[in-house]
Amino acid sequence: MDDALLAAKWMRVLASLATELRAPYLRAELLTLPTETKAAALERICARAEQGEPEAREALVSLVDLLAQPDFEAEARALREMAKQAPFLALGRLLRRPLRPAPAAAIQQPVNEARVPDYGVGRPLTLGERKALARRPTRQVLDKLLADPDPAVIRLLLNNPKVIEDDVLRLAARRPNRPDILAEIAKSPRWAHRPRVRMALVLNPSTPAEIAVPLVGLLMRSELRLVQSSTDVAPIVRSMARDLLTRRPPMKKEEPPEGGMVQ
């Protein structure tokens, strides 16, 4: 199929699906196609999303969701190499990575060496006990759970209906923070699509670049300006915001107001 037709098909189908089905659909599509074919179609979507087209921005959310999944890294690497060769510039911007590895100070402490919160029972709780609390937390113990260093505890907590957006926002904005904890938030369809949570992840210097950079592609104009002016975020994140601002067309009525949600 022609890449323009393929991109149009993906945008049409993704818009018709329930939110939780979109990323799985796109993953299944991408895994069946040659790298050059799918990269060319994604390039069209990325380029149109950079211009603020609503249908393309909606489709881009599904790709960003996939990029936050560790088991999609090999596919992302192949797409990144193809974007360099083609070149597919818009796709390459979304998939860009730092040229240098993170400094040693930014490497997180192993979970088994990190400090577990005092849950007030007179002894350290086991991982199994903390996971049980995360499945049925009370408001009294929730603050302790949000400070837990184990991603498995946070994963269960994020899926609990008692947790509200303000809880997740506090966790996403906490500094310093563990990159693997922030990655859990980015992987959560329930929370990663919330504009305030998304922005907190982008602005947190502990968020890994491979998560923060694609999220920048979903930001609104005023949010991009804020990221561009932030001195806390990594240079590659600021660079992405600056590039998108230069490519964004003049303000149009279809751009939703500040705080609007792209899903």
Describe the structure.
With 263 residues, the protein is an all-alpha fold. It has two domains: 3-94, no CATH class; 114-247, no CATH class. It is 61% helix and 0% strand. It is built from 16 helices and no strands. It has helices spanning 3-16, 19-30, 35-50, 54-67, 73-85, 89-94, 127-135, 139-146, 151-158, 165-173, 179-187, 189-192, 195-203, 209-216, 221-229, 235-247.
**Count of the domains:** 2
Q: How large a portion of the residues is in β-strands, by DSSP E? A: under 5%
Helix content class: 55-70%
Please identify the oligomeric state.
single chain
The largest sheet is: none
Number of helices: 16
Distance between the termini: 27 Å
Q: What class, by secondary structure content?
A: mainly alpha
Tally of strands: 0
Radius of gyration, in Å, reads: 19 Å
Succession of helices and strands: HHHHHHHHHHHHHHHH
CA-based shape:
globular
| Low-pLDDT stretches | 257-263
Question: Could you tell me the mean pLDDT?
Answer: 89
Briefly characterize the structure.
Helix content is 61%, strand content 0%.
Keywords:
single chain, about 260 residues, mainly alpha, globular
Topology:
Blueprint: H1 3-16, H2 19-30, H3 35-50, H4 54-67, H5 73-85, H6 89-94, H7 127-135, H8 139-146, H9 151-158, H10 165-173, H11 179-187, H12 189-192, H13 195-203, H14 209-216, H15 221-229, H16 235-247
Helix pairs in contact: 1-2, 1-3, 1-4, 2-4, 3-4, 3-5, 7-9, 9-11, 10-13, 13-14, 14-16, 15-16
